Amino acid sequence: MIQRYHNEPVGLRVTPEPGDYLKLHDRILPDGSEQITVGRGESWSVLACKEVYGKASKAVQASGAKSAVFDLSAAAELGRDGLLAAAEGICGGAYQMKYTLSDQWEPEFACYASGEGWQEQDLQLGWTLAESILRTRSLVNRPANLLTPERLATALTEQCAGLPVETQCYDRGTLHELGLEAFLAVGDSSGHSPVLAVLRYTGAPDSAERLGLVGKGVTVDSGGYNLKSSGSMAGIKGDVIGSLSGKTIEVFNADAEGRLILADGLTWAIRKEGCTRLVDAATLTGAICAMLGYVATGVMASDDGWYATLERAAAHSGERFWRMPDFPEYEKLIRGDLGDVRNTSRDGCGAITAGLFLRHFTEGLPWLHLDIAGTADNKGYVWEHQVPGATGTAVSTLFHLACGLAEIKEEAK
């Protein structure tokens, strides 16, 4: 945990200052202490704040210092968003891959906070949010033999211990009884039993709104085994499977399996949990990387107002999103011949048609699909507040999205 600075002896003092963006300077102060400064650049934003404190945190770690005090005055200029960004930068920049095998997530050096204009509760909230982001990184980075579906469900349950969150895990037999055919078309192919983990938080029990967050939870992706090349699979006839929604799905590519899990997950959120607004987030397509590279998450949205709420959340988090088109002509690419819908496109537009496939299972509710395949893992550009490997992308934005939904409900009263 980071603590307010009270003149404790520290190894390094960190201060953002005007100057070339992300340029580091190391100097000795008159009192003999060592200071690192990082250039803020010309545009001071939430993302820039994350980057500056991330760059500084990496410098502290590289120096071998046992402690550092971070001047948060610059972060405070951006209000609470700046404090949350600084916390993510400090923790995210110092994250190490080895943490995935332990409960470690904070920097190995002691952290102190100085400066003016910030509130203690904002900084502590930022530290808690940073913990959620980094624990997400660790789960994604964990080797597959140490993170089977059962172990993932256990990890999620354990992380909810002591919180007002109800957890319930459904095993293979129960899922068969309940009719999650699309989910099980994928899960039954593994020697490890599939699990549906449900986490329920009822923060506003009198509200008519209920937000459903859906992920696929695939712990090892074999890449999809096809008996022939992908282009030749249709020639041996695709499978037709059912789903919890009652819709039938033609399967033409075994590597487009994540959307089958999400289809039943969305239906579960609606019919079993009573959700009124939906968000799914998944590393769904390679096509989104071709479209947006590794710096923005692709979005499919069924509701302009709900997408606007996401945009406001992204402004708070500093993460980047881009809305994909959903013109009716694209629907023809996934129209089924023997089933209601195909799991892959007839001809291109892979990221768009993957999103449209999922829309078939949203029952007309406000819905956002986040394709994080390009942003969930640092294969391309590595931000200063991140390190190679899993990024924990969208966690911060989803936090702000949930806060934004609460604000919408307050305004509606």
Question: Would you give an account of this structure?
Answer:
The structure is a single chain. The chain is of the alpha/beta class and 413 residues long. The strands form 4 sheets. A 6-stranded mixed sheet has the order 1-6-5-2-4-3. It is elongated and about 80 Å long. The mean pLDDT is 94.
Topology:
Blueprint: E1 3-4, E2 12-17, E3 24-28, E4 34-39, H1 46-63, E5 67-71, H2 73-76, H3 80-94, E6 110-114, H4 120-141, H5 149-159, E7 165-170, H6 172-178, H7 181-187, E8 196-201, E9 211-214, E10 239-241, E11 249-251, H8 258-271, E12 277-282, H9 287-292, E13 297-301, H10 304-317, E14 321-323, H11 328-331, E15 341-342, H12 350-359, E16 367-371, H13 395-412
Parallel strand pairs: 1-6, 2-4, 2-5, 5-6, 9-12, 11-15, 12-16, 13-14
Antiparallel strand pairs: 3-4, 7-8, 10-11, 13-16
